[in-house]
## 1
Amino acid sequence: MTTKMKRREFITVLGGAAAAWPLAARAQQAAMPVIGFLSSTSSGPYAPFVAAFLQGLKEVGFVDGQNLTIEYRWADGQYDRLPALAAELAHRQVAVIAVGGGGITALAAKSATSTIPIVFAFGSDPVKLGLVASLNRPGGNITGASNLAVALGQKRLELLRDLLPNVAAIGFLMNPGSPNAAFDLSDMQAAAHTLGRQLTILNASTEREIDTAFVALVQQRVAAFVIQPEPFLFSRRDQLVALASRHAIVARRASHVAAKTG
């Protein structure tokens, strides 16, 4: 799935959030309805998805500043801020909360309210996270879409193996501060063992640490790596693509090959 496809998916899921809020909220004429937008990331890197969100709302007849208001809450990668930010939106009694930036954001929103509709779009398994009862019958006040990217660790390694069959070591770039770090690492280690490949672990939770990780990849002669499907790293996709191209390293993230040699 390309980045363009991800944006289209974001339009479909979060743009449809307008249809999810209660009819009573729509019927209120005294004030415009308010949408809460909660994300674990920063506004800058997430701008293309905000644009997709606004476009999706426009397609169903809602324009920010004209017939609705959007209140944004950004955690800027500080996950411990999410509960308070979600509580602010719940206290504001927004009509719906649209969440981005991983399952941890949706969990914070769910903990803040059991009545305000919540719409998510991410790569984690919402059932395993405890967000919904099942994929076909989510129940409660939360729904959305997931591409289940975290369950595709072995497939991503298989694709790299097919691209570079002679490569014995594959890097795994991960954010150690991610709530899913332990789970994702275990998944990738099991996949590497199954495929008979050595896994080189690289940690990065800041832009500078991403640069340092690439230096380590070059020094260790690792020709290919997989990127953890994680909000911070995904928001730095342009930096990752540029570095992978500069150093001629094949990179595979949750959805597609980010860069390739030659």
## 2
Amino acid sequence: MKDKILAMLKENEDTFVSGQLISEILGVSRASIWKHINKLKEEGYVIESISKNGYKLVSCPDLLVQQEINTYLNTNYIGRNIVYFDSIDSTNTKAKEIASMDIIDGTVVISEEQTAGRGRVGRQWISPKYKGIWMSIILKPDMEPSNASNITLIAAAAVTMALKDFDVDVQIKWPNDIILNNKKLGGILTEMSSELNLIEYIIIGIGINVNNSEEDFSDTLEAIATSLKIETADNFNRQKLLGSILNHFEILYEEYILESNLTSTLQVCKKNSILLGKEIQLYHKGVLITATAVDISDEGLLIIQHKDGSIEKIISGEVSMHGVYGYRQES
């Protein structure tokens, strides 16, 4: 009922909506309306109330809650069920806890803050409150576990396309880092539970530094990490950006699971790659080698060329990569 009242206020944001009209349309008492209005105010909505005029929505909070994200969603199921937290240790950890329950496909676990956010190889991900997008998408696809790694590329492509909606051009460090001006803007952490040829669930953790300031990063991180606000000097609408990411993700994800089509994803990943055509260093089986990244295969693997001219396909997770062009991150 609270969400329906909020929807009515949003539809009439330039005028007052009488309590009597809300009561008649929704079939609830004026007292019930007053109760829900107060609840909305507690959640950060600024609502003006004038006797005989009714209620008018003045402003909405910058929170990544369901009723705000719905405004920007065009999806059928991705993000249509948001499990929201003000603060949590890790969205991926919570997503894994609830994924095996009767939770619907496409559920998104999101938190305004992570106290123990995780990157790859167990690294800490700094996730300050109300500054970024810290979320995990729960997926339950009917597909071979061996194909699950491509969901990481789909997420990277979706984030890249969403940022282009905001006129921000980023690059992708295959397969899971989002780079802006040679610094890390975001990352993707994919985890899976499966048995033989059956996937129980896939968790796609996405972290994007949106409105972080320099003070949010330690001296060490400041040299390699950045945010949209730092690079553009603008504050970004986190709700709109989140909605855009989920919209693009569902389109690319459905192309893959329904049509076995990774073409659109690969086009985005190749066009915006920070690695292709460049010399990179890889730790492969404990040995540091230097090679050239030449392409991404139709299966989503990185194709490298060794100095002797031989070609090799690299599987995500097998090696660590160290870029030699202004950033140093591990894949």
